[in-house]
Amino acid sequence: MVTDNKMQSDCTLEYMCPYCGAINNFHLNSIRDMYYEQHESCGCCNKVLSLTPADGIAGSINLIVDEIINDNVIK
């Protein structure tokens, strides 16, 4: 029997801050949040980051982390 690795509906992903290199956690609801840009602050340097979850290979999730140039982000 073949089983598929499907994305879980809720999971926690780790990412590295592009400013300071700190490891942070991001709680993802994969059904609701996929492909929607979200803004999170780094737990170490408090810089606001852009996080976009996307489909990866073999059912995994890629988290695209980018720095936000303008600090005047409307949440």
Protein model, in words:
The protein is mainly beta. Helix content is 5%, strand content 44%. The protein is built from one helix and five strands, in the order ββαβββ. The chain has one helix at residues 30-33; strands at 10-16, 23-29, 38-41, 48-55, 61-67. The strands form two sheets. A three-stranded antiparallel beta sheet has the order 3-4-5, with no helix packed on it. A hairpin with a 6-residue loop joins β1 (10-16) and β2 (23-29). It is globular, with a radius of gyration of 14 Å. The relative contact order is 0.26.
Unreliable segments (pLDDT under 50, ≥5 consecutive)?
1-8
Shape, principal axes of CA atoms: globular
> What's the total number of strands?
5
Question: What percent of residues adopt helix (DSSP H or I)?
Answer: under 10%
Which strand-content bin applies to the residues?
35-45%
Global Rg: 14 Å
Order of helices and strands: EEHEEE
Structural class: mainly beta
| First and last CA, distance | 46 Å
Averaged pLDDT: 82
How many DSSP helices?
1
Q: Report the biggest beta sheet as strand number plus sense, adding barrel if it closes.
A: 3 strands, antiparallel
The spatial strand order of the largest sheet comes to: 3-4-5
Give the key terms.
mainly beta, two-stranded antiparallel sheet, 1 helix, 5 strands, disordered N terminus
List the helices and strands and how they pair.
Blueprint: E1 10-16, E2 23-29, H1 30-33, E3 38-41, E4 48-55, E5 61-67
Antiparallel strand pairs: 1-2, 3-4, 4-5
Summarize the structure.
It contains 1 helix and 5 strands, in the order ββαβββ.
